[in-house]
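[Meeting: bench + compute handoff]

Bench side (C.D.) handed over the final construct sequence. Compute side (W.E.) agreed to return the predicted structure before the next meeting so the bench team could plan truncations. Sequence as handed over:
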Amino acid sequence: MRCFEPMATDGPERTKLSRDEHQLGSSSRALRMPDRRLRPFLQREYVGASHEGLKFESWLEPPQPVATLMISLRDPLRTERAELPRAWIAGLDDRPEIVDTSGRHTEVDLKLTALGAYALCGVPMSELTGQVVPLEEVFGPGVQFLPEQLAEAQSWNTRFDLVERLLLSRLGVAAVPDPFVVEAVRRLQVRGGRIRINELAAGLNVSRRHLSTRFRAQVGLPPKTFARLLRFELARRLMNERPARWADLAAECGYADQSHLNREFRELGGTSPAQLLARRLPGFGTVGDGITFVQDIGEGRT
């Protein structure tokens, strides 16, 4: 049985608070829109999340066409690969990840657009592709004590204020992406990844080679792989919003056929479309128990 508490507010900054209880445990969320100066760099609002009494061992993180900046206020997260730093940033990746849910977890979770991450990090995003990097290695030693500061803060408003000040300070050193890369990202997003890269390059009056080189440096993945993640994201969103026949979903999302759709879900999501939908948690997240990745899925980066 699921019990959902509607949004409350956390003081004058209007951070929205909610709690979701269901048979697999409970979670709390805090949401706040960022400062307008930062909105072009962020995929969504600031999110604070806390999970309690979870009755499963792991959750599944499929790859997304965004970069992640996360700060743990309590126990650090652990994946199949390693224990993560308490404050980290991860570039784009085309591999799914299994995250351990044991312990006490409360995090600030930010999703940066691909070019927003390039601007705020000030380094080629190809250096962060498939990597989880301690935040201080990218933002400098000034963030060393940020996890402790957030843990000691008395409200989510205060926590988001601290994070926001950090991001605003990065605007002074923001890198500027190439205009044709900005336009390439926009066209890929508008089409949900359903565009051939030769066609994309021709429409931008650049060679495919030049587009791929600059795109990979500033986004972190080649345009073909980025398009692949956008199609996968579109398919996941549509199947959650309005489940349909898998063949129809494949056609709508630009896959050659249902078999192509199934292969992409197994490679990017670790399981079939039907199983991924069945594993979806109330509110957000996906149960990862029983999913084993037998190969490193990184061929699309070449």
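W.E. noted at the follow-up: Residues 3-173 form one domain. C.D. will use this when planning the next construct.
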